Every structure is written in C-alpha cells, then in structure tokens.
C-alpha cells in the first residue's frame, strides 16, 4: 500500500525510530507516538472543506501536509500504515457510551490487529483521555497504559465494551462494538453525518486534542484545557482568533491554511 519512502515519511511524522518488524513493542510505540504527534482536529469541517477517506487523500492531508483529522481519518491513515507494514487489521464500527441515557449511532472506527495469536485494539482517534497503548481484546483482564486502567466486558447489545478507570474514579464505559467486519467505504456515511448533518457537533465548534506522556491537551469551542492525573489542571477561555491560531500552531502543531476562518 504505502511505499518504503512513504512509510519513512510517516515515521518521521510521528518521530518513530523503531524497527519495521511486526511486534507488540513496535505496535505500542507507533500507537503512543501517533497520539503525541498527530492531533485530533475538525478544522476542515468548520470551513466547509469536503473530507475524503481515500487512502491517498488521508496520507496527503495528515502526513504530507502535517495536519490532523478526526476518528475516521486518523484511524484510516493508521490502518493503512499497519497494513503496509504487514499487520493483519480488522475494522469494526463502534458506539460511544458517554451518554448512558442514550444509545448512540455507530460513528467510530475500530481497528483490531491480530498478532502472534492474540488480538489488540488500536485507537488513535479519540479526542479525550483514552487508551494510549494497544489493548489485548480479552474479557475482564485489567490492563494499564500507565495513566488509566482498562478492561473489556461483554454485553448482549453493545458487544465488546471498553471500560475505563481513571485515577481515584469509578469504572465507566467508553465505547462498545460488535464484530461485523467493515470495509473502508462503510465509514463514508457516518463520517458524512458528522461532517454535514445539522445535529452533528463536529461542524459547530473546534474539537482539538493532542496527548503528551502524561496529559491530554484540548480545545473545545473557545476553551483550552489540560487534563492530567484524572483532573483538569489548566483551563482558560481563548480570547481572540489570533490567540487561537497561536495555540493551534504551538501546542498542537497545526498551521492553519490561509483561507481558513477561526472563530472563537
């Protein structure tokens, strides 16, 4: 899929200096670095720039032009990288579970990598605190990414349910998915909903995120926050477009195209 030169450029993008052999260690390193160097961002949606989930378009936007994207894009480009490296990757459609009173539609792209007889869920496309490492897809085993604990439960409706326990907090469900295989084109419709539907929040205000070793930095609307140790350690309102553009460049590494509008 990707050429050796494209893979090298991808590795440069995420500052990955490990090997190309298929291993849990290399998969974990790429997963961690992806979260730290490629931001979650929805600026195209806010500027009516049509999204494309085509393999070459994702590579051009995220790797060549050094932008970010949202889940369908980030998981898509990571999926193509892993397949190019020879990993066996299955894709499924997931439901977020952060609204316990409401069953949400399937609007998340799940990647499951089969390696050495085990399966690992890789997710580099969630905006808030989420697994920073691949998690083995096994029931009821507590796993840690050094920030939070996680385990998978089984549910008759949601299928696999990812549970999270942040420091000094109770367990809570994050996302559920069943194992009907999806192809790349299956994500076009839910992505288009997020892009264009009047009920979507993705086309209303900024949703930006990037991870560090121990924190998650975000912009939601006009509020910048730093989340670490299971609590918000910094939060303030962005006062101007100029300030927003500076934060996007310095904190998230996003250089705004000249014709884009940033409204705070």
Topology, element by element:
Elements (H helix, E strand, L loop, with lengths): L3 H11 L9 H14 L5 H4 L8 H10 L6 H14 L3 E9 L11 E8 L2 E5 L12 E2 L6 E2 L4 E7 L3 E7 L5 E7 L10 H9 L10 E5 L3 E6 L2 E6 L2 E7 L3 H10 L14
Antiparallel strand pairs: 1-2, 1-8, 2-3, 3-4, 5-6, 6-7, 7-8, 9-10, 10-11, 11-12
Which features does this protein show?
264 residues; alpha+beta; four-stranded antiparallel β-sheet; 12 strands; 27% strand; globular
Describe the structure.
The structure is a single chain. This protein has 264 residues and is α+β, with helices and mostly antiparallel strands. It is built from seven helices and twelve strands. The protein has an eight-stranded antiparallel sheet, covered by helices on one side. A hairpin with a 5-residue loop joins strand 7 and strand 8. The chain is globular, with a radius of gyration of 18 Å. The model has no long low-confidence stretch (mean pLDDT 96).
């Amino acid at each position: 899929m990707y050429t050796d030169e494209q893979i090298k450029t991808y590795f440069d993008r995420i500052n990955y200096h490990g090997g190309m052999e298929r291993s849990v260690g290399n998969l974990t390193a790429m997963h961690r670095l992806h979260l730290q160097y490629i931001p979650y961002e929805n600026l195209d949606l806010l500027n009516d720039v049509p999204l494309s989930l085509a393999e070459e378009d994702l590579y051009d936007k995220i790797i060549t032009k050094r932008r970010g994207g949202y889940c369908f894009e980030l998981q898509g480009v990571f999926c193509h990288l892993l397949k190019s490296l020879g990993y066996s990757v299955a894709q499924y459609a997931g439901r977020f579970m952060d609204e316990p009173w409401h069953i949400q539609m399937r609007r998340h792209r799940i990647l499951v990598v089969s390696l050495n007889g085990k399966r690992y869920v890789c997710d580099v496309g969630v905006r808030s605190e989420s697994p920073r490492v691949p998690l083995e897809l096994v029931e009821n085993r507590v796993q840690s990414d050094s920030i939070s604990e996680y385990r998978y439960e089984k549910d008759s409706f949601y299928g696999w349910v990812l549970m999270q326990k942040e420091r000094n907090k109770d367990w809570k469900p994050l996302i559920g998915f069943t194992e009907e295989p999806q192809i790349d084109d299956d994500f076009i419709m839910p992505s288009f909903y997020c892009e264009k539907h009047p009920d979507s929040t993705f086309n209303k205000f900024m949703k930006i995120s990037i991870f560090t070793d121990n924190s998650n930095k975000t912009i939601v609307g006009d509020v910048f926050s730093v989340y670490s140790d299971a609590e918000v350690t910094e939060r303030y309102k962005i006062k101007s477009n100029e300030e927003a553009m500076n934060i996007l460049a310095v904190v998230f590494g996003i250089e705004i195209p000249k014709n884009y509008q940033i409204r705070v």
